Amino acid sequence: MACVSPDGKPTESGTKMLRAIKSGMGSAEEIASSAGLPLFRVRSGLRELTQAGLANQKDDKYELSSKGTELLDSLST
Amino acid sequence: MEEVKEQLISLPRLGEPAPAFETVSTHGVLKLEDFKGSWLILFSHPADFTPVCTTEFIAFAEIFPELQKRGVELLGLSVDSVSSHIAWVRNVEEKTGVKIPFPIIADLSKEVSLAYGMIHPGQSKTETVRCVFIIDPNQIIRTILYYPLTTGRNMAEILRIIDALQTTDKNAVATPANWRPGDMVVVPPPNTQEMAEERIKQGYECVDWYLCKKKL
Question: Which of A76, B115, B187, B203 falls 20 to 30 Å from B141 in CA-CA distance?
Answer without folding.
Answer: B187
